[in-house]
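Revision sheet: structure tokens.
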Amino acid sequence: MKLVIGNKNYSSWSLRPWLLLRHAGIAFEEIPVRLSTKEFSSDVARFSPAGKVPVLVDDGVTVWDSLSISEYVAERFPEKSLWPADPATRALARSVCAEMHSGFGDLRSQMPMNVTAVLPGCGWNVAVQRDVDRIAAIWEDLRARYGAEGPFLFGKFSVADAFFAPVVSRFATYGVHLPDAAKAYADFMLALPAMQEWISAAGEERDFLADDEPYRTEPDRPDAIIIHH
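Predicted:
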């Protein structure tokens, strides 16, 4: 099983299936592709005609898009119980994943994932706050319902936790204030060994996207490779 991913510092879409596989203990080969380079399209095209990361390749089967990959992995490894067993709870889990997958555009655009940066207050506006409030409400509701069953959104680890992991990273980067229950969940996720592994690897990357980080200059990262869109 191979997983094609973008830069760990920036690729929120890649983090989802990577964390799902890593935390679930499913073995895979990681194939990194550098974002925003002229070779990116051709590099990804070797694995998927969609031309985007992430891509999962498993014994001749190619799956792209983080939600499709998650569904495939859950079906491929039913013993991992990556969706809740109860049908109603599973429907709720799929609903919040789909909402995360297709929504929160203001948060995404104003607070892009940047694992290694510390930017408290940057990117905030009223529309972003509405997205933050909605995500916090989802987390608080799920923790209130399923907290007795374990520390994850639905008690046990599920696709939902993998889907919200990039938002956890964003909230840390931009110093977003959260209600107590939502903050406790975010802190727990940040401390997860798989998340710490991703964060550590992001810190080892030398690329940074100049258009996304105009505040970061070359002297800040003397060994950096600056990528211009």
